[in-house]
Amino acid sequence: MSESNSEQKIPVKHIDPTDHKKRPAPRRDNKNDKKKGRRQIYVRAAEGVFQTLRSRMNWVMMLSFMLLPWLHIDGRQAVFLDFSNRQFHLFGLTIWPQDLMLLAFVFIIAAFALFFFTTFLGRVWCGYWCPQTVWTFLFIWFEEKLEGPRNKRIRLDELPWSFNKFWRKTAKHGCWLLVSLITALTFVAYFWGSHEAFFGFFTGDLTFWPYFWTFFFMLATYGNAGWMREIVCLHMCPYARFQSVMFDRDTFTVSYDAKRGESRGPRPRKKDPKELGLGDCIDCVLCVQVCPTGIDIRDGLQYECINCGACVDVCDQTMDRMGYEKGLISYTTERQLEGGKTNIMRPKLLGYGVILLIMMSALVATVATRQPLKLDVIRDRNMLSRLNDYGLMENVYTLKVLNKSQVVRSYQLAVDGIDGLEWNGETQVIVEPGEVFSVPVSLAIDPYLLKQPITDLEFVLTDDEGRQVTQESRFIKGR
Questions:
Q1: Which residue numbers delimit the 4Fe-4S ferredoxin-type domain (predicted)?
Q2: Domain range for residue 261?
Protein backbone atom coordinates (compact mmCIF):
# COMPACT_ATOMS: atom_id res chain seq x y z
CA MET A 1 0.00 0.00 0.00
CA SER A 2 1.38 3.42 -0.93
CA GLU A 3 2.24 6.04 1.66
CA SER A 4 -0.52 8.38 0.42
CA ASN A 5 -3.18 5.66 0.74
CA SER A 6 -2.04 4.75 4.25
CA GLU A 7 -2.33 8.37 5.33
CA GLN A 8 -5.92 8.54 4.03
CA LYS A 9 -7.00 5.35 5.78
CA ILE A 10 -9.48 6.00 8.59
CA PRO A 11 -8.30 4.54 11.90
CA VAL A 12 -10.73 1.88 13.09
CA LYS A 13 -11.17 0.73 16.65
CA HIS A 14 -12.35 -2.88 16.72
CA ILE A 15 -14.80 -3.61 19.58
CA ASP A 16 -15.86 -7.06 20.64
CA PRO A 17 -19.67 -6.81 21.19
CA THR A 18 -19.59 -9.76 23.58
CA ASP A 19 -16.97 -8.27 25.90
CA HIS A 20 -18.73 -5.67 28.03
CA LYS A 21 -15.59 -4.86 30.02
CA LYS A 22 -13.90 -3.49 26.91
CA ARG A 23 -16.89 -1.43 25.83
CA PRO A 24 -16.71 2.33 26.29
CA ALA A 25 -18.91 3.77 29.00
CA PRO A 26 -22.25 5.13 27.78
CA ARG A 27 -22.22 8.78 26.85
CA ARG A 28 -23.71 10.89 29.59
CA ASP A 29 -26.24 13.50 28.72
CA ASN A 30 -25.21 15.98 31.36
CA LYS A 31 -21.65 17.08 32.01
CA ASN A 32 -22.47 17.66 35.65
CA ASP A 33 -23.63 14.10 36.29
CA LYS A 34 -21.81 12.39 39.12
CA LYS A 35 -20.71 8.80 38.96
CA LYS A 36 -22.45 7.90 42.17
CA GLY A 37 -25.67 9.72 41.37
CA ARG A 38 -28.49 8.93 39.01
CA ARG A 39 -27.75 9.68 35.37
CA GLN A 40 -30.34 12.10 34.03
CA ILE A 41 -31.94 10.70 30.88
CA TYR A 42 -33.02 13.17 28.21
CA VAL A 43 -35.19 11.18 25.82
CA ARG A 44 -34.96 12.21 22.20
CA ALA A 45 -38.17 12.24 20.16
CA ALA A 46 -38.46 9.36 17.70
CA GLU A 47 -40.76 8.78 14.75
CA GLY A 48 -41.56 5.68 12.80
CA VAL A 49 -43.88 2.73 12.42
CA PHE A 50 -43.49 1.38 15.93
CA GLN A 51 -43.70 4.80 17.58
CA THR A 52 -46.90 5.54 15.69
CA LEU A 53 -48.31 2.20 16.83
CA ARG A 54 -47.16 2.80 20.41
CA SER A 55 -48.61 6.33 20.45
CA ARG A 56 -52.01 5.16 19.20
CA MET A 57 -52.13 2.30 21.70
CA ASN A 58 -51.14 4.72 24.45
CA TRP A 59 -54.03 7.00 23.51
CA VAL A 60 -56.44 4.06 23.54
CA MET A 61 -55.19 3.05 26.99
CA MET A 62 -55.32 6.56 28.43
CA LEU A 63 -58.68 7.57 26.95
CA SER A 64 -60.25 4.27 28.05
CA PHE A 65 -59.06 4.90 31.59
CA MET A 66 -60.26 8.53 31.56
CA LEU A 67 -63.67 8.01 29.91
CA LEU A 68 -64.88 4.74 31.43
CA PRO A 69 -66.09 6.33 34.72
CA TRP A 70 -68.34 8.65 32.70
CA LEU A 71 -69.99 5.81 30.78
CA HIS A 72 -73.39 4.85 32.23
CA ILE A 73 -75.57 1.82 31.53
CA ASP A 74 -79.23 1.83 32.68
CA GLY A 75 -78.57 4.90 34.81
CA ARG A 76 -75.62 3.31 36.64
CA GLN A 77 -71.90 3.92 36.21
CA ALA A 78 -70.67 1.19 33.85
CA VAL A 79 -67.53 0.44 35.86
CA PHE A 80 -68.00 1.08 39.57
CA LEU A 81 -66.14 -0.71 42.35
CA ASP A 82 -68.42 -0.15 45.32
CA PHE A 83 -66.45 -1.52 48.25
CA SER A 84 -68.77 0.01 50.86
CA ASN A 85 -71.66 -2.12 49.60
CA ARG A 86 -69.41 -5.00 48.52
CA GLN A 87 -70.47 -4.76 44.86
CA PHE A 88 -68.47 -4.52 41.63
CA HIS A 89 -70.48 -3.20 38.68
CA LEU A 90 -68.91 -4.07 35.31
CA PHE A 91 -70.90 -3.18 32.18
CA GLY A 92 -74.27 -4.36 33.42
CA LEU A 93 -72.82 -7.25 35.44
CA THR A 94 -72.85 -6.97 39.23
CA ILE A 95 -70.22 -9.05 41.02
CA TRP A 96 -70.87 -9.89 44.66
CA PRO A 97 -68.60 -11.46 47.27
CA GLN A 98 -70.28 -14.75 46.37
CA ASP A 99 -68.99 -14.30 42.79
CA LEU A 100 -65.32 -13.93 43.63
CA MET A 101 -64.63 -16.94 41.43
CA LEU A 102 -65.20 -14.60 38.47
CA LEU A 103 -62.46 -12.29 39.71
CA ALA A 104 -60.21 -15.28 40.26
CA PHE A 105 -60.75 -16.27 36.62
CA VAL A 106 -59.92 -12.71 35.49
CA PHE A 107 -56.66 -12.65 37.46
CA ILE A 108 -55.64 -16.10 36.22
CA ILE A 109 -56.40 -15.09 32.63
CA ALA A 110 -54.37 -11.89 33.05
CA ALA A 111 -51.43 -13.88 34.43
CA PHE A 112 -51.39 -16.44 31.62
CA ALA A 113 -51.89 -13.71 29.01
CA LEU A 114 -48.80 -12.03 30.42
CA PHE A 115 -46.88 -15.32 30.28
CA PHE A 116 -48.05 -16.00 26.73
CA PHE A 117 -47.19 -12.59 25.26
CA THR A 118 -43.89 -12.38 27.14
CA THR A 119 -42.81 -15.75 25.79
CA PHE A 120 -43.87 -14.73 22.29
CA LEU A 121 -43.04 -10.99 22.09
CA GLY A 122 -40.89 -10.27 25.13
CA ARG A 123 -41.60 -7.26 27.30
CA VAL A 124 -44.02 -5.76 24.79
CA TRP A 125 -46.61 -5.04 27.52
CA CYS A 126 -44.20 -2.57 29.10
CA GLY A 127 -43.51 -0.73 25.88
CA TYR A 128 -47.05 -0.34 24.58
CA TRP A 129 -49.64 -0.77 27.34
CA CYS A 130 -48.12 -0.29 30.79
CA PRO A 131 -49.59 2.79 32.54
CA GLN A 132 -46.10 3.77 33.73
CA THR A 133 -44.91 3.95 30.11
CA VAL A 134 -48.08 5.66 28.88
CA TRP A 135 -47.93 8.46 31.45
CA THR A 136 -44.13 8.80 31.18
CA PHE A 137 -44.32 9.42 27.44
CA LEU A 138 -47.17 11.89 28.05
CA PHE A 139 -45.02 13.80 30.54
CA ILE A 140 -42.08 13.72 28.10
CA TRP A 141 -44.39 15.23 25.46
CA PHE A 142 -45.11 18.20 27.73
CA GLU A 143 -41.38 18.44 28.41
CA GLU A 144 -40.58 18.65 24.69
CA LYS A 145 -43.28 21.21 23.98
CA LEU A 146 -42.27 23.55 26.82
CA GLU A 147 -38.49 23.07 27.07
CA GLY A 148 -37.65 22.07 23.52
CA PRO A 149 -35.93 19.06 21.94
CA ARG A 150 -33.35 16.97 23.73
CA ASN A 151 -30.30 19.18 23.13
CA LYS A 152 -32.17 22.30 24.24
CA ARG A 153 -33.32 20.57 27.42
CA ILE A 154 -29.76 19.58 28.25
CA ARG A 155 -28.59 23.14 27.62
CA LEU A 156 -31.46 24.60 29.64
CA ASP A 157 -30.56 22.51 32.68
CA GLU A 158 -26.93 23.62 32.46
CA LEU A 159 -27.81 27.33 32.29
CA PRO A 160 -28.19 29.40 35.48
CA TRP A 161 -31.67 30.34 36.59
CA SER A 162 -33.35 33.08 34.53
CA PHE A 163 -36.87 34.19 33.72
CA ASN A 164 -36.90 31.98 30.60
CA LYS A 165 -35.82 28.92 32.56
CA PHE A 166 -38.20 29.71 35.43
CA TRP A 167 -41.37 30.03 33.36
CA ARG A 168 -40.59 26.95 31.27
CA LYS A 169 -39.92 24.79 34.32
CA THR A 170 -42.97 26.18 36.12
CA ALA A 171 -45.24 25.56 33.13
CA LYS A 172 -43.91 22.02 32.73
CA HIS A 173 -44.45 21.05 36.35
CA GLY A 174 -47.84 22.79 36.33
CA CYS A 175 -48.94 20.62 33.40
CA TRP A 176 -47.56 17.53 35.12
CA LEU A 177 -49.49 18.31 38.31
CA LEU A 178 -52.70 19.04 36.36
CA VAL A 179 -52.48 15.71 34.49
CA SER A 180 -51.66 13.97 37.78
CA LEU A 181 -54.71 15.53 39.46
CA ILE A 182 -57.03 14.47 36.61
CA THR A 183 -55.52 10.98 36.73
CA ALA A 184 -56.02 10.72 40.49
CA LEU A 185 -59.61 12.00 40.34
CA THR A 186 -60.36 9.50 37.58
CA PHE A 187 -58.93 6.68 39.66
CA VAL A 188 -60.98 7.72 42.70
CA ALA A 189 -64.07 7.98 40.46
CA TYR A 190 -63.97 4.21 39.95
CA PHE A 191 -64.60 3.79 43.70
CA TRP A 192 -66.67 6.83 44.72
CA GLY A 193 -68.48 7.68 41.48
CA SER A 194 -67.47 10.08 38.70
CA HIS A 195 -69.75 12.99 39.62
CA GLU A 196 -69.06 12.65 43.34
CA ALA A 197 -65.28 12.51 42.82
CA PHE A 198 -64.87 15.38 40.37
CA PHE A 199 -67.56 17.80 41.52
CA GLY A 200 -67.26 16.89 45.18
CA PHE A 201 -63.50 17.54 45.10
CA PHE A 202 -63.93 21.16 44.02
CA THR A 203 -67.05 21.87 46.10
CA GLY A 204 -65.63 20.37 49.28
CA ASP A 205 -68.37 17.75 49.61
CA LEU A 206 -66.03 14.78 49.84
CA THR A 207 -65.04 13.12 53.09
CA PHE A 208 -61.49 12.64 54.33
CA TRP A 209 -60.62 9.38 52.51
CA PRO A 210 -61.52 10.48 48.95
CA TYR A 211 -59.38 13.58 49.44
CA PHE A 212 -56.56 11.52 50.91
CA TRP A 213 -56.48 9.03 48.04
CA THR A 214 -56.80 11.80 45.44
CA PHE A 215 -53.74 13.63 46.72
CA PHE A 216 -51.89 10.35 47.29
CA PHE A 217 -52.36 9.14 43.69
CA MET A 218 -51.74 12.64 42.33
CA LEU A 219 -48.32 12.74 44.01
CA ALA A 220 -47.66 9.12 43.01
CA THR A 221 -48.39 9.89 39.33
CA TYR A 222 -46.36 13.10 39.44
CA GLY A 223 -43.42 11.33 41.05
CA ASN A 224 -43.49 8.13 38.99
CA ALA A 225 -44.01 9.64 35.53
CA GLY A 226 -42.28 12.96 36.10
CA TRP A 227 -39.29 12.24 38.30
CA MET A 228 -38.57 8.55 38.77
CA ARG A 229 -39.56 7.30 35.30
CA GLU A 230 -37.07 4.56 34.43
CA ILE A 231 -36.40 3.89 38.14
CA VAL A 232 -39.90 2.38 38.38
CA CYS A 233 -39.18 0.09 35.42
CA LEU A 234 -35.69 -0.90 36.54
CA HIS A 235 -35.96 -1.19 40.31
CA MET A 236 -39.61 -1.14 41.44
CA CYS A 237 -41.44 -3.27 38.87
CA PRO A 238 -41.20 -7.00 39.69
CA TYR A 239 -41.98 -7.91 36.09
CA ALA A 240 -38.55 -6.66 35.02
CA ARG A 241 -36.96 -9.22 37.33
CA PHE A 242 -38.87 -12.40 36.55
CA GLN A 243 -39.49 -11.85 32.83
CA SER A 244 -36.27 -13.63 31.90
CA VAL A 245 -37.63 -16.99 33.06
CA MET A 246 -40.21 -16.78 30.26
CA PHE A 247 -37.71 -15.86 27.56
CA ASP A 248 -36.16 -18.43 25.24
CA ARG A 249 -34.15 -18.36 22.02
CA ASP A 250 -37.35 -17.93 19.97
CA THR A 251 -38.74 -14.93 21.89
CA PHE A 252 -39.09 -11.79 19.77
CA THR A 253 -37.18 -8.94 21.39
CA VAL A 254 -35.62 -5.68 20.24
CA SER A 255 -32.09 -6.78 19.29
CA TYR A 256 -28.99 -5.41 17.58
CA ASP A 257 -27.39 -7.47 14.80
CA ALA A 258 -23.75 -7.38 15.93
CA LYS A 259 -22.55 -9.45 12.97
CA ARG A 260 -23.82 -6.84 10.58
CA GLY A 261 -23.14 -3.74 12.67
CA GLU A 262 -19.60 -4.33 13.95
CA SER A 263 -17.12 -2.81 13.76
CA ARG A 264 -18.93 0.44 14.27
CA GLY A 265 -17.73 3.95 13.56
CA PRO A 266 -18.41 7.13 11.56
CA ARG A 267 -17.77 7.23 7.82
CA PRO A 268 -18.62 9.29 4.72
CA ARG A 269 -22.03 8.47 3.29
CA LYS A 270 -20.68 7.58 -0.14
CA LYS A 271 -17.88 5.36 1.14
CA ASP A 272 -18.26 1.58 1.15
CA PRO A 273 -17.98 0.53 4.83
CA LYS A 274 -16.35 -2.76 3.84
CA GLU A 275 -13.43 -0.88 2.31
CA LEU A 276 -12.99 0.91 5.63
CA GLY A 277 -13.27 -2.26 7.67
CA LEU A 278 -16.54 -1.11 9.22
CA GLY A 279 -19.96 -2.60 9.74
CA ASP A 280 -23.25 -0.83 9.14
CA CYS A 281 -23.43 0.85 12.58
CA ILE A 282 -22.19 4.44 12.25
CA ASP A 283 -22.08 4.88 16.06
CA CYS A 284 -24.46 7.84 16.00
CA VAL A 285 -25.76 6.84 19.48
CA LEU A 286 -29.30 7.84 18.47
CA CYS A 287 -30.52 4.44 19.68
CA VAL A 288 -29.29 5.37 23.16
CA GLN A 289 -30.75 8.88 23.04
CA VAL A 290 -34.29 7.73 22.20
CA CYS A 291 -34.34 4.94 24.81
CA PRO A 292 -36.63 5.82 27.75
CA THR A 293 -34.53 3.68 30.09
CA GLY A 294 -31.20 4.99 28.79
CA ILE A 295 -29.63 1.68 27.76
CA ASP A 296 -27.46 0.87 24.77
CA ILE A 297 -29.23 -1.89 22.87
CA ARG A 298 -25.93 -2.73 21.16
CA ASP A 299 -24.74 -4.23 24.45
CA GLY A 300 -27.12 -7.13 23.89
CA LEU A 301 -30.34 -8.26 25.58
CA GLN A 302 -30.89 -6.41 28.87
CA TYR A 303 -33.71 -6.63 31.37
CA GLU A 304 -34.03 -2.81 31.29
CA CYS A 305 -35.31 -2.92 27.68
CA ILE A 306 -39.08 -2.38 27.57
CA ASN A 307 -39.45 -3.32 23.86
CA CYS A 308 -40.93 0.06 22.92
CA GLY A 309 -39.19 -0.04 19.52
CA ALA A 310 -37.92 3.56 19.61
CA CYS A 311 -34.37 2.43 18.77
CA VAL A 312 -35.74 0.33 15.89
CA ASP A 313 -37.42 3.34 14.28
CA VAL A 314 -34.51 5.76 14.69
CA CYS A 315 -31.98 3.18 13.45
CA ASP A 316 -34.11 2.39 10.38
CA GLN A 317 -34.20 6.10 9.55
CA THR A 318 -30.41 6.30 9.89
CA MET A 319 -29.91 3.23 7.69
CA ASP A 320 -32.26 4.75 5.11
CA ARG A 321 -30.29 8.01 5.04
CA MET A 322 -27.02 6.10 4.68
CA GLY A 323 -28.46 3.94 1.90
CA TYR A 324 -28.10 0.74 3.92
CA GLU A 325 -30.62 -2.03 4.44
CA LYS A 326 -32.99 -1.49 7.36
CA GLY A 327 -33.18 -3.89 10.27
CA LEU A 328 -29.82 -3.38 11.97
CA ILE A 329 -31.93 -3.09 15.12
CA SER A 330 -35.21 -4.98 14.87
CA TYR A 331 -37.76 -7.20 16.57
CA THR A 332 -36.09 -10.56 16.13
CA THR A 333 -35.07 -13.67 18.03
CA GLU A 334 -31.77 -14.98 19.30
CA ARG A 335 -32.08 -18.02 17.05
CA GLN A 336 -32.64 -15.83 14.00
CA LEU A 337 -29.61 -13.68 14.83
CA GLU A 338 -27.55 -16.87 14.92
CA GLY A 339 -28.68 -17.69 11.38
CA GLY A 340 -31.41 -20.17 12.28
CA LYS A 341 -35.16 -20.14 11.76
CA THR A 342 -37.49 -18.98 14.54
CA ASN A 343 -39.65 -21.74 15.96
CA ILE A 344 -42.96 -20.11 16.83
CA MET A 345 -45.03 -23.25 17.52
CA ARG A 346 -43.01 -24.46 20.51
CA PRO A 347 -44.36 -26.44 23.49
CA LYS A 348 -44.07 -23.69 26.12
CA LEU A 349 -45.89 -21.10 24.02
CA LEU A 350 -48.56 -23.61 22.99
CA GLY A 351 -49.00 -24.64 26.63
CA TYR A 352 -49.57 -21.06 27.74
CA GLY A 353 -51.96 -20.53 24.83
CA VAL A 354 -54.01 -23.65 25.56
CA ILE A 355 -54.34 -22.82 29.26
CA LEU A 356 -55.28 -19.25 28.36
CA LEU A 357 -58.03 -20.47 26.02
CA ILE A 358 -59.31 -22.93 28.64
CA MET A 359 -59.50 -20.24 31.32
CA MET A 360 -61.20 -17.77 28.97
CA SER A 361 -63.74 -20.42 28.00
CA ALA A 362 -64.36 -21.20 31.66
CA LEU A 363 -64.92 -17.51 32.38
CA VAL A 364 -67.37 -17.15 29.49
CA ALA A 365 -69.23 -20.30 30.57
CA THR A 366 -69.39 -19.11 34.19
CA VAL A 367 -70.76 -15.72 33.20
CA ALA A 368 -73.24 -17.26 30.73
CA THR A 369 -74.62 -19.71 33.29
CA ARG A 370 -74.51 -17.28 36.20
CA GLN A 371 -77.90 -16.72 37.79
CA PRO A 372 -78.72 -13.10 38.75
CA LEU A 373 -80.46 -14.32 41.91
CA LYS A 374 -79.29 -16.13 45.00
CA LEU A 375 -80.96 -17.74 47.99
CA ASP A 376 -79.40 -18.41 51.38
CA VAL A 377 -81.20 -20.30 54.15
CA ILE A 378 -80.40 -19.69 57.82
CA ARG A 379 -81.94 -21.92 60.46
CA ASP A 380 -83.03 -20.60 63.83
CA ARG A 381 -80.22 -21.93 66.02
CA ASN A 382 -81.87 -20.99 69.32
CA MET A 383 -84.65 -23.51 68.79
CA LEU A 384 -84.14 -26.28 66.24
CA SER A 385 -87.76 -27.43 66.46
CA ARG A 386 -90.86 -26.96 68.60
CA LEU A 387 -94.51 -27.96 68.92
CA ASN A 388 -96.82 -25.04 68.20
CA ASP A 389 -100.24 -24.43 69.71
CA TYR A 390 -101.87 -26.68 67.10
CA GLY A 391 -99.68 -29.68 67.92
CA LEU A 392 -97.65 -29.36 64.74
CA MET A 393 -93.88 -29.71 64.61
CA GLU A 394 -92.44 -26.37 63.55
CA ASN A 395 -89.01 -25.26 62.25
CA VAL A 396 -88.08 -21.61 61.77
CA TYR A 397 -85.86 -20.29 58.94
CA THR A 398 -84.65 -16.95 57.62
CA LEU A 399 -84.44 -16.81 53.83
CA LYS A 400 -81.98 -14.30 52.34
CA VAL A 401 -83.04 -13.33 48.81
CA LEU A 402 -80.30 -11.56 46.86
CA ASN A 403 -81.17 -9.65 43.69
CA LYS A 404 -77.90 -9.71 41.73
CA SER A 405 -79.42 -7.93 38.73
CA GLN A 406 -79.67 -4.17 38.20
CA VAL A 407 -83.48 -3.99 37.94
CA VAL A 408 -86.33 -4.51 40.41
CA ARG A 409 -87.39 -8.16 40.53
CA SER A 410 -90.39 -10.09 41.87
CA TYR A 411 -89.63 -13.48 43.42
CA GLN A 412 -91.75 -16.49 44.30
CA LEU A 413 -90.79 -18.68 47.28
CA ALA A 414 -91.70 -22.33 47.76
CA VAL A 415 -90.48 -25.51 49.46
CA ASP A 416 -90.14 -29.03 48.12
CA GLY A 417 -89.17 -32.40 49.56
CA ILE A 418 -91.82 -33.07 52.25
CA ASP A 419 -95.49 -33.53 51.57
CA GLY A 420 -97.95 -31.84 53.89
CA LEU A 421 -95.75 -28.93 55.00
CA GLU A 422 -97.58 -25.80 56.09
CA TRP A 423 -95.86 -22.55 55.02
CA ASN A 424 -96.15 -19.56 57.33
CA GLY A 425 -94.65 -16.38 55.83
CA GLU A 426 -94.46 -14.43 52.62
CA THR A 427 -94.41 -16.43 49.40
CA GLN A 428 -93.85 -13.50 47.04
CA VAL A 429 -91.42 -10.61 47.57
CA ILE A 430 -90.22 -7.63 45.51
CA VAL A 431 -86.51 -6.90 45.83
CA GLU A 432 -84.65 -3.79 44.70
CA PRO A 433 -81.49 -4.17 42.56
CA GLY A 434 -78.52 -5.15 44.67
CA GLU A 435 -80.68 -5.65 47.76
CA VAL A 436 -80.55 -8.56 50.20
CA PHE A 437 -84.12 -9.15 51.37
CA SER A 438 -84.77 -11.18 54.56
CA VAL A 439 -87.88 -13.33 54.72
CA PRO A 440 -88.70 -15.05 58.07
CA VAL A 441 -90.49 -18.33 57.41
CA SER A 442 -91.78 -21.15 59.60
CA LEU A 443 -92.64 -24.62 58.33
CA ALA A 444 -95.04 -26.85 60.27
CA ILE A 445 -96.19 -30.46 59.83
CA ASP A 446 -97.96 -33.20 61.72
CA PRO A 447 -95.08 -35.03 63.51
CA TYR A 448 -96.70 -38.39 62.71
CA LEU A 449 -96.03 -37.73 59.01
CA LEU A 450 -92.28 -37.54 59.62
CA LYS A 451 -90.64 -40.93 59.30
CA GLN A 452 -87.11 -39.80 60.23
CA PRO A 453 -85.63 -37.47 62.86
CA ILE A 454 -84.02 -35.35 60.12
CA THR A 455 -85.58 -34.92 56.68
CA ASP A 456 -83.94 -33.14 53.75
CA LEU A 457 -85.89 -30.44 51.90
CA GLU A 458 -85.28 -27.75 49.28
CA PHE A 459 -86.30 -24.11 49.21
CA VAL A 460 -87.09 -22.90 45.69
CA LEU A 461 -86.70 -19.28 44.52
CA THR A 462 -88.16 -18.28 41.14
CA ASP A 463 -87.94 -14.81 39.59
CA ASP A 464 -90.40 -13.07 37.27
CA GLU A 465 -88.52 -14.31 34.18
CA GLY A 466 -88.68 -17.96 35.18
CA ARG A 467 -85.11 -18.33 36.43
CA GLN A 468 -84.89 -20.62 39.42
CA VAL A 469 -82.40 -21.50 42.14
CA THR A 470 -82.69 -23.97 45.00
CA GLN A 471 -81.09 -24.24 48.42
CA GLU A 472 -80.95 -27.39 50.50
CA SER A 473 -81.84 -27.44 54.19
CA ARG A 474 -83.21 -29.85 56.81
CA PHE A 475 -86.38 -30.24 58.82
CA ILE A 476 -85.70 -31.56 62.34
CA LYS A 477 -88.26 -33.57 64.23
CA GLY A 478 -88.18 -32.79 67.92
CA ARG A 479 -88.60 -35.25 70.71
A1: 272-300
A2: 18-25+248-337
Length of the chain: 479
Q: For 238-282, how does the pLDDT look when each residue is reduced to its tens digit (9 = 90+)?
A: 887 787 788 899 999 999 999 999 999 999 988 888 888 999 999
CA 184/CA 176 separation, integer angstroms:
12
Question: Quick one: pLDDT at residue 420?
Answer: 87
> Mean pLDDT in the chain?
88
Q: How many CB atoms lie within 10 A of CB 81?
A: 13
Number of domains in the chain: 3
Give the tens place of pLDDT for each residue, 101-121.
888 888 899 999 999 999 999
Reply yes or no on whether the pLDDT at 25 is more than 60.
Answer: no
Q: What angle do CA 55, 312, 230 make, to 5 degrees?
A: 65
pLDDT at 10: 45
**Inside any domain, residue 101:** no
Q: What confidence category does residue 37 fall into, taking pLDDT thresholds of 50, 70 and 90?
A: low
Tell me which residue of 187, 182, 173 sits closest to 223, measured CA to CA: 173
Q: Is residue 106 part of a domain?
A: no
Q: Could you tell me if 137 and 186 lie in one domain? A: yes
Tell if the pTM clears 0.70, that is, is over it.
Answer: yes
3-state secondary structure string across the chain: CCHHHHHHCCCCCCCCCCCHHHCCCCCCCCCCCCCCCCCCCCCCCCCCHHHHHHHHHHHHHHHHHHHHHHCEECCEECEEEECCCCEEEECCEEECHHHHHHHHHHHHHHHHHHHHHHHHHCCHHHHHCCHHHHHHHHHHHHHHHHHCCHHHHHHHHHCCCCHHHHHHHHHHHHHHHHHHHHHHHHHHHHHHCHHHHHHHHHHCCCCHHHHHHHHHHHHHHHHHHHHHCHHHHHHHCCHHHHHHHHCCCCCCEEEECHHHHCCCCCCCCCCCCCCCCCCCCCCCCHHHHCCCCCCCHHHCCCCCCCCCCHHHHHHHHHHHHHCCCCCCEEEECHHHHCCCCCCCCCHHHHHHHHHHHHHHHHHHHHHHHCCCEEEEEEECCCCCCEECCCCCEEEEEEEEEEECCCCCEEEEEEEECCCCCEEECCCEEEECCCCEEEEEEEEEECHHHCCCCEEEEEEEEEECCCCEEEEEEEEECCC
Say if residue 280 is in the same domain as residue 386.
no
Confidence of residue 184 (pLDDT cuts 50, 70, 90): very high
